Amino acid sequence: MIRAYKFLLRPTARQAVAMGEMLRDHCSLYNGALQERRDAYRHISKASIRYGDQSAQLKEIRAFDPERQGRWSFSSQQATLRRLDNAFHAFFRRVKAGEKPGYPRFKGVGHFDTVVFPKDGDGCHWDSIVHDPQTRVRLQGVGHVRVHQHRPVQGRVKTISISVRTNAGTSSSRATTYPPSPSSPQAPW
Hints:
The chain is an alpha+beta fold. Helix content is 36%, strand content 23%. The protein has helices spanning 13-42, 51-64, 74-97; strands at residues 3-10, 114-117, 124-126, 136-139, 143-148, 156-165, 170-178.
């Protein structure tokens, strides 16, 4: 059974600033990838750009801009590009079905509020400090952020989504878990 847990994050002031920068940089990546797709289609060749093409360019983008794009997790940036690709798949599905299509839109910083880390241990790590009584999640480029864990997490954390609501100033983490493997010992609770 797949479970999703939502916890409140308690970042320090410096971590909150870094998380805001992370959102802005991922938003910039999303909008840049959308612009590239629009320009390629409007070109006389009507070329189509897919997720694989843009993901292959990510290494050069990170090398060109190490201060902004280069400091965040590669897999979280790939997840942002996948988010755009899923928006295009939904658009073309609606066009094919004859519904109102709704072309993918550019996102303002206030409307781009979630960064997904698709694998625990790749740019993020749940319960990153082992002997600390307080649960923390380590985010690449941000540090060890305190988590207000109001209930225990059962199973193994696989995906972590970080959401920051800019107007309310709150941060939350969503951890998706899978049941523990039969060979691993059960938690005492």
